[in-house]
Amino acid sequence: MTLEDSVHAFRLRVLQRAQELGNVSAACRELGISRTVFYRWKGRHERYGRDGLHPRRRAARRGRPPALEQHDEHAILAMALAWPTWGPQRISDQLAREGRRIAPSTVYRALRRLGLGTRRKRLAVLESHSAQDAGLLTERTRRKLQQARRRKRHVEAKEPGELVCLDSFYIGKLKGVGKVWQLTACDAACSYAAARIVPAATAKETARFLREVLVPLYEEAGWPLQRVLTDRGCEELGIQHTRTKPGHPWTNGFVERLQGTILHEHWRVAFRRRYFTNREQLDRSLAGFLRFYNDERTHRGYRTRGRTPSEIFWGAVGRSHSREV
């Protein structure tokens, strides 16, 4: 008789003994088990019959994880503190771009071992080293970003300039600065990003952003700017204008997702690192992140397929033309 058969026979005997005595407690005391275990076995017997009392097969425990070199652990730590809102997959992708092949699961184990296993813990470390407090994003902004949903592809472009998604984003009301908005453009074909800090999200500011930033940018890159998806401000520039549906942020999902990335990876970190006193400082900070986003940051989307937006937009690998806007 195998061990499994022996266990199965014992469980059947427990149920039979309880029936003979007519007292579950007495049977459990006699055979040395708890009432909880008895009723668990009884439930399985009623549900599956005699076969339900066979012991469950357990999978073998995982082996010991491979040792991580100290310099790799230091690289993970540096990346996690530099970009505290990034998860293990993003950190793994970025380290691979620098020549370090470390699996996301290994990155996660290392972060847990270092006490940085969650985004909140990493941000807390950054916050504790911040010398000054700064303005916080409002609940309205957070709710707006949470409304964005991953939807079926309803807009698509084959080459840069064919469709540019444009939207405004309320950053918040900062002490000494006032209300701050961000105008953001995302190319639907390659994810190339452009943005500018403005005092108000009006049609006038949107038209100015198109005229001073987007039109020259696409002319320099050699792509005709054909169509813009937004809700205001481009009729006088001779560009085909498609309006978004009011109250439906997913209609303009590309740029909504980009704005979430900028908030998540840049502003939540930047506001914990420094105190901004004017919009020009915010604009320079945003421009620096956009250079990184377009030229260096890893991308996994179906549009870029591992390439950076600049590689597609400027048409040559390694050629960086990101401009401050």
Describe the structure.
- The chain has 325 residues and is of the alpha/beta class.
- It folds into three domains: 3-53; 70-128; 139-313, Ribonuclease H-like superfamily/Ribonuclease H (Nucleotidyltransferase, domain 5, 2-Layer Sandwich), CATH 3.30.420.10.
- Helices cover 47% and strands 11% of the residues.
- It is built from twelve helices and five strands.
- It has helices at residues 3-21, 24-31, 35-48, 70-82, 88-97, 104-113, 119-128, 139-146, 203-221, 253-273, 279-295, 309-313; strands spanning 164-174, 178-187, 193-198, 227-230, 240-243.
- It has a five-stranded mixed β-sheet with strand order 3-2-1-4-5, with helices on both faces.
- The relative contact order is 0.10.
- Mean pLDDT is 82; it is low at 131-138, 148-153 and 316-320.
What's this entry about, in short?
The protein has 325 residues and is α/β, with parallel strands linked by helices. It has twelve helices and five strands.
Class derived from helix and strand content:
alpha/beta
CATH architecture of the largest domain: 2-Layer Sandwich
% residues in beta strands: 5-15%
According to CATH, the homologous superfamily of the largest domain is: Ribonuclease H-like superfamily/Ribonuclease H
**Cross-sheet strand order for the largest sheet:** 3-2-1-4-5
Supply the CATH class of the largest domain.
Answer: Alpha Beta
Large-scale geometry: elongated
Number of E strands: 5
The CATH topology name of the largest domain reads Nucleotidyltransferase, domain 5
> What's the N-to-C terminus distance?
79 Å
**What is the number of helices?**
12
Summarize the biggest pleated sheet.
5 strands, mixed
Q: Please, how many domains? A: 3
- Could you report the average pLDDT, rounded to the nearest whole number? 82
Low-pLDDT stretches:
131-138, 148-153, 316-320
Helix content: 40-55%
Radius of gyration: 29 Å
